[in-house]
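User:
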Amino acid sequence: MDDEALCTDVTLRATLDDRAAAPRGDLLVHWFRTATDLLFATGERELSESWALVTESIDGDRKVRVRDVRAHWTELADALRPSPFYAAAGFHEPSPGGVGVDDHGRIGGTRTGRGGSHTELSAQVRGAERIADAAWCAHLVDFLATVLDGADPAFARIGHLDFQEATDLEAVLKRPHRRSLHESRTLLRGYSWVTGVPAELAARLGGPTALEATGAFHAVRELRAGGLLLQSTETLADYDRPHLEAVFHALAPVLPPGTPDEAPGRPTLRLTFEDASRVRPRTGS
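Assistant: Predicted structure:
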């Protein structure tokens, strides 16, 4: 098995703020429950065992540890519902004595921003050759649509080899994380194979009809509580530079201005080095 198959190479992320359409704790529970059911099926040996850790506050007090997420779901949900500072769950194959276990997938939730103003949700999965499988890629988008349908997220994305909380665009524009979070309903934080756009920015872009007309997206999905999920190509493997540039031009009116610079520590930047304030969105053919 090659190195790519051994890593969690596909990341799904969403950002919630105080405008979320439901209590953030309830949305956190929904994220963990739906990810457990849809992304980490019990039929696969490498996902048959699991663990979870919840830390109530930034000071590290009151930690809840669970060794089997499914068997102790009620206990885990009770710890998640107050919207704690940090929560994580990992899925792995059986290991004698529980020593030396490597996660084959992970779910996360962290309060961030000034005073815990935002909650960052994440899920990491192993894609490998499946990033070229249309059905598997559709399953990822279905998960994100299901879990965010009642949320109106401030931002969301699905990317390949995208391991950091800050987006590539935030990194190359040197945008402070707190500022980017604070302005996330005024300026879009970035763009990826799948990009979640909050309701305010979706309206400025003309809504789903206008975005479909750009020709930049394989699918445009409306979320019930507000916002859109924009899927660039049918599969992650198809998301090449021409498609990336088409997404950039379609979303340029709501992207932060500035000329991108180099970002040390990020060898595989997935963006275009143009100033969004100097371009206009292209229309589809």
